[in-house]
Design a protein that fits this description.
Layout: H1 4-7, H2 11-22, H3 26-51, H4 74-95, E1 102-104, E2 114-116, H5 118-143, H6 166-199
Antiparallel strand pairs: 1-2
Helix pairs in contact: 3-4, 5-6
Length: about 200
């Protein structure tokens, strides 16, 4: 029969648990980002296929200019899943944090709660959003045409100075970098306050 002391985790177990919680892995970031991008594009495509209609996927279908072979169909949803996963995985690996995104709450190894680093979360989110808009805008600008990026150009309503050209992509990227940083800081602040309240 095991005693109560044998069942209670020791300090070494708590240190191991904390080190596992605090490690951030670039591969995990890539897989997580890839899964979100891939499933997001796949589900968006499937919803349009199920909805049907004469103008089915008129806007999402424009991804065929950037993603060869993509279409608003069941096959396009599968291809979108693959494209989205690989694009997201690459972005996740590229932009994964190079240092820990969290810190321990209590140095005395009391109840271990992970804290988020707002700066790291904000920088990662801001860079992801800025890079996505920068690349998308420039791909559309390079493709040219009579009205490149008709829908994307409507962002000028929210981001004054944004347009579908190289200079506009820099302006839009700056806006999204700042917006992503602010959202990341806010998420970390709210999370950390909730943990502090729970610990009190």
């Amino acid at each position: 029969m095991a005693s109560q002391a044998d069942e209670t985790p020791g300090i070494e177990d708590k240190v191991k648990a904390a080190s596992v919680l605090l490690r951030i892995n670039a591969r995990a970031w890539g897989v997580a980002t890839g899964a979100v991008f891939g499933l997001g594009l796949c589900l968006a495509t499937l919803v349009l296929v199920w909805k049907g209609g004469s103008d089915m996927g008129q806007h999402l279908g424009r991804l065929r200019y950037v993603l060869p072979g993509y279409s608003v169909s069941y096959a396009g949803a599968a291809l979108g899943l693959v494209y989205g996963f690989f694009i997201g995985y690459g972005l996740g690996r590229l932009l994964s944090p190079r240092r820990e995104l969290s810190e321990e709450a209590a140095p005395d190894l009391g109840p271990i709660h992970v804290r988020l680093r707002g700066g790291a979360w904000g920088a990662t989110l801001g860079v992801l959003l800025a890079l996505a808009l920068f690349v998308t805008t420039n791909v559309l600008a390079l493709r040219g045409g009579e009205h490149p990026g008709v829908l994307l150009s409507e962002l000028h309503v929210y981001f004054p100075g944004y347009r579908v050209d190289f200079a506009g992509s820099l302006i839009g990227a700056a806006y999204l970098l700042a917006l992503g940083w602010l959202v990341g800081q806010t998420i970390a602040f709210v999370y950390n306050r909730s943990v502090a309240r729970a610990e009190a």
